[in-house]
Design goal:
By secondary structure, the protein is an alpha/beta fold. It is built from 12 helices and 14 strands. Bound molecules: pyridoxal-5'-phosphate. The site of pyridoxal-5'-phosphate has 15 residues, from helix 3 and helix 4.
Length: about 375
């Protein structure tokens, strides 16, 4: 059996090597490393795939979030609500701009931001909400959009873990994650569902006016060369990454299905165990399993991880520390009772290997050993 890894980029690469190498050779021959034709091609392809009017490529997902908040014209001291249980980038972008992050708790079963907690945190300074579609499943967007309309707030989706997920509205129509709020942000970090071979990101919007501002903002605030109407940054997707993403986008649905197959296998085998809780699937979104994350119940999560490692089965904790406990983000306004769910999740979640190349043999080995260890604990 091949060694098990959390993510297997090499196995995936081997299957598309010829196409990738041809695509990057073309960039080498053109020497148009920045703003080559591949970048425009990729934004067009992603616009079609996501059915969104504007894709603005940028350097990474963290920049995408920062640029989104810059384009909204928020002012220092304005408050932005986001989840306590997410990757640090979400809250970092808020803080970097002098805006005030207002962290709120998440839902215990699907791990996404809780609309009731959002509503409690809204005050006259609140200007925006950043829901994160955590682990590859959408946050409850209809409730969040309703709140945004009621209180006149922007919605910026952090779809870094959710490229390709469908949101199913109550009336039956669908939209891709990242195309529902005012602006969506995504990441092409290599291990993301649509991963480049380096850094990359994109900003999504259906709003023409915002699209124009987003385009200036990633390009030094410049509309006409060397005339700077806004304060901007330099954040670009380079031509090599765009060429690679053009190849990989064609396989994204297939890749997401392979993750779903692996998740279904895990679910089947693990669902009956009294100490393990399989990931909940919500009705308003499919799940593309950026992570396959279990909750442990009545056993030590850390011991479980250690014993799995002893049998060469890697597992990861996404995320071990609630954001409100991170030194850089402490806030005296928070009370202990504000984050009961997140605090519990940080102690009990464990993510299993999930990627496009897991074999039946590996899945069998993982689940067989996991059940054995969980019984012993
Ligand atoms: C990966 C990730 C980001 C940041 O993306 P980078 O491209 O690494 O900057 C932001 N938010 C979430 C939820 C992520 O998982």
């Amino acid at each position: 059996m091949e060694e098990i890894s959390m993510v297997d980029l090499k196995g995936q690469y081997k299957k598309i090597r010829d196409e990738i190498e041809k695509a990057v050779q073309n960039v080498f021959h053109s020497t148009a490393f920045i703003n080559g034709k591949e970048v425009k091609e990729f934004s067009g392809n992603l616009e079609n795939y996501l059915n969104v009017k504007h894709v603005i490529p940028c350097g990474n997902g963290t920049d995408a979030l920062q640029v989104a908040l810059m384009a909204l014209g928020l002012k220092p001291g304005d408050e932005v609500i986001t989840a306590d249980f997410t990757f640090i980038a979400t809250v970092e972008a808020i803080a970097l701009l002098g805006l005030k992050p207002r962290l709120v708790d998440v839902r215990p079963d699907d791990f996404n931001i809780d609309p009731d907690s959002i509503e409690k945190a809204i005050n006259e300074k609140t200007k925006a909400i950043i829901p994160v579609h955590l682990y590859g499943q959408c946050a409850p967007m209809e409730d969040i959009i309703d709140l945004a309309q009621k209180y006149n707030l922007y919605v910026v989706e952090d779809a870094a873990q959710a490229t390709g997920v469908d949101y199913l509205f109550e009336d039956g129509h669908k939209k891709k994650a990242g195309t529902i709020g005012d602006i969506g942000c995504t990441s092409f970090f290599p291990s993301k569902n649509l991963g480049a071979y380096g850094d990359g990101g994109a900003i999504l919007t259906n709003n023409d006016e915002l699209a124009e501002k987003l385009r200036y903002t990633v390009n030094h605030g410049m509309k006409v060369k060397y005339y700077h109407d806004y304060v901007g940054i330099n954040s670009r997707l380079d031509s090599l990454q765009a060429a690679i993403l053009n190849v990989k986008l064609k396989y994204l649905d297939k890749y997401n299905m392979a993750r779903q197959d692996a998740a279904r296998y895990y679910d089947q085998i693990l669902k009956e165990h009294k100490n393990l809780v399989i990931p909940k699937k919500v009705t308003w979104s499919n799940h593309i399993f950026h992570q396959y994350t279990l909750k442990t119940k009545g056993i030590s999560r850390d011991l479980l991880k250690e014993r799995l490692a002893a049998r060469e089965i890697p597992a990861m904790i996404y995320y071990p520390v609630p954001l409100h406990c991170q030194k850089a983000y402490q806030n005296p306004d928070y009370s202990d009772k504000d984050f009961i769910v997140t605090e519990e999740l940080c102690k009990t979640v464990i993510s299993l290997p999930i990627h496009t190349e897991l074999s039946k043999e590996q899945l069998n080995y993982i689940t067989h050993n996991l059940l054995e260890i969980a019984d012993e604990l």
